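Milestone 3.1: sequence recovery, worked example.
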């Protein structure tokens, strides 16, 4: 039985990793883009190998891949302040715990950095997932405000 691993992303992951991001958005985030080709194109316009390589080079962020049998199952990215910037799963690996594993990995990294909180802007599609992982909407936030935070204390 193969086991999923999470590791820091590299330049060599750029083609497959950016494809996973585009497919995840296009195929799994319908609640957010409604199948509108223009909305999908706008959302995925920077999800390409060139941008991937720039993310790898950024010192203030960490880009991660969840892999199994050398295939990328998911992509996560977090900055040095605990901002979860990416957490996407390949449609082929949906409902296998990939996003949860990436999220746990990034939260563990945040704790090691001495951070007390992680935050993110959730999609409508992922809101229930993040709530089940302990993320809460900001107080006094509007119904359409997708900013969520989680305390890492305890």
């Amino acid at each position: 039985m193969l086991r999923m691993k999470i590791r820091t992303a590299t330049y060599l992951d750029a083609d497959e990793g950016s494809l996973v991001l585009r497919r995840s958005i296009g195929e799994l985030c319908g609640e957010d883009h409604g199948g509108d080709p223009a909305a999908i194109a706008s959302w995925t316009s920077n999800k390409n190998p060139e941008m991937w390589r720039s993310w790898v080079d950024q010192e203030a962020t960490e880009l991660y891949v969840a892999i199994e049998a050398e295939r990328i199952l998911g992509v996560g990215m977090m900055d040095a302040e605990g901002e979860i910037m990416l957490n996407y799963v390949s449609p082929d690996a949906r409902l296998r715990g990939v996003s949860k594993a990436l999220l746990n990995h990034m939260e563990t990294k945040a704790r090691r950095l001495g951070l007390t909180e992680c935050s993110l802007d959730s999609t409508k599609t992922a809101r229930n997932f993040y709530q089940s992982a302990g993320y809460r909407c900001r107080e006094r936030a509007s119904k359409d405000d997708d900013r969520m935070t989680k305390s890492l204390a305890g």
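DSSP finds six helices and seven strands in the chain. The mean pLDDT is 93.
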